[in-house]
């Protein structure tokens, strides 16, 4: 393919393998300034650059984090930011043996002509932004688009999501960044797990159809799917074993084994649920590295414990390490609670 002969092909494959390495997963800390503002408000803090810097400094400086975390996704502000004691955050990550990544999408907006669904912006200027991010030290990228089950999903929304992800993936690979392909199927709704499974199958069929059309090198991408679960408001709940069974069945039916890593999002699952589900998926060998790329399921406890107080930093850092280690064990299928 076009991209297989691109000058970055070997590096892309290597980067993807490093991020998808045993016992490790991704720390998603790429909340946009707006989302970060919501998280800070939940602990009574103002959304200032200084607060965001203090919080992100404490995350990346956790001693020993690189044992469990292979990659960290940053928002653009953080990619160019220093820690509170003046070291470049990117350098701190590299010292920790953690690959820096960057959220490159520009967020969701209403999809005209659909049933109140959304699409993801950010393709304009993406090639030159990606080249700058590479210069700045990023080696992988993330693009998150969403699919709503209660609002459809319409064929239009699925096609738009899949096409946007594929264009983004091709542009990222052209500029040396391993694309994380993330069509998040939102938890919202009272539908059962079978409905989620059926929608996820359609979404991934579309995504891989367009990835191939865009000559994307499968060995140089990472996926960030939602786990297959019942809707958040569904009466019938699923056990971790059921979630694992449905999710692995979906992956086997839709994801080529050439893809090196499946890094699940937590999507509003509790910290413990996210760990238990991942652990259940790793009870037998899989064709891909099956791991995590959690934001809330790694950070919820940390945020609460922090509360903006410097005297809490040590305790917060220990809390992050506890979650990271639990998910590292789950990646190996060895988490026991
Ligand atoms: P959650 O794990 O909180 O869903 O966030 C992951 C993420 O990066 C969403 O894009």
Automatic annotation (TrEMBL):
Gene Ontology molecular function: any one:
fructose-bisphosphate aldolase activity
| Principal place of residence | plastid
Give the record's GO CC terms: chloroplast
Q: Which of UniProt's keywords are assigned here? A: Chloroplast, Glycolysis, Lyase, Plastid, Schiff base
Question: Where is it located?
Answer: Plastid, Chloroplast
- EC class: lyase
Biological or metabolic pathway of the protein: Carbohydrate degradation; glycolysis; D-glyceraldehyde 3-phosphate and glycerone phosphate from D-glucose: step 4/4
Membrane as a keyword? no
| One record GO biological process | glycolytic process
Q: Which reaction does it catalyse?
A: beta-D-fructose 1,6-bisphosphate = D-glyceraldehyde 3-phosphate + dihydroxyacetone phosphate
**What Enzyme Commission number(s) apply to this enzyme?**
4.1.2.13
Which family does the similarity line name? Answer: Belongs to the class I fructose-bisphosphate aldolase family.
| Protein name (Swiss-Prot/TrEMBL) | Fructose-bisphosphate aldolase
Q: Which organism is it from?
A: Prunus avium (Cherry)
Q: Which gene encodes it?
A: LOC110758601
Show which stretch of the intact protein is covered. Answer: 43 to 379 of 397
């Amino acid at each position: 393919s076009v991209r297989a002969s691109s000058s970055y092909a070997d590096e892309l494959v290597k980067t993807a393998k490093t991020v998808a390495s045993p016992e490790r997963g991704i720390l998603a800390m790429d909340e946009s300034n707006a989302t970060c503002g919501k998280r800070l408000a939940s602990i009574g803090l103002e959304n200032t650059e200084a607060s965001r810097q203090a919080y992100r400094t404490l995350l990346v400086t956790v001693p020993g984090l690189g044992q469990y975390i292979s990659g960290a996704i940053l928002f653009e502000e953080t990619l160019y930011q220093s820690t509170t004691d003046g070291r470049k955050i990117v350098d701190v990550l590299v010292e920790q043996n953690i690959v820096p990544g960057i959220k490159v999408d520009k967020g969701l907006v209403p999809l005209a002509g659909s049933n109140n669904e959304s699409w993801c912006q950010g393709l304009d200027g993406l090639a030159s932004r990606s080249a700058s991010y590479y210069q700045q030290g990023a080696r992988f990228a993330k693009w998150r688009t969403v699919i709503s089950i209660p609002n459809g999903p319409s064929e239009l929304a699925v096609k738009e999501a899949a096409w946007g992800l594929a264009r983004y993936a091709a542009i990222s690979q052209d500029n040396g960044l391993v694309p994380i392909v993330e069509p998040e199927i939102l938890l919202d709704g009272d539908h059962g797990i079978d409905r989620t499974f059926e929608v996820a199958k359609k979404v991934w069929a579309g995504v891989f159809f367009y990835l191939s059309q865009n000559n994307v090198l499968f060995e140089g991408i990472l996926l960030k799917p939602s786990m297959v679960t019942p809707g958040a408001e569904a009466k019938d709940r699923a056990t971790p074993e059921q979630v694992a069974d449905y999710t692995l069945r979906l992956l086997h039916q839709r994801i080529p084994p050439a893809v090196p890593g499946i890094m699940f999002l937590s999507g509003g699952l509790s910290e413990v649920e996210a760990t238990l589900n991942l652990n259940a998926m790793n009870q037998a060998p899989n064709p891909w590295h099956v791991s995590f790329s959690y934001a809330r399921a790694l950070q919820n406890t940390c945020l609460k414990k922090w509360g903006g107080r410097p005297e809490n930093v040590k305790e917060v850092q220990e809390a992050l390490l506890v979650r990271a280690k639990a998910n590292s064990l789950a990646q190996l299928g060895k988490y026991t609670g």
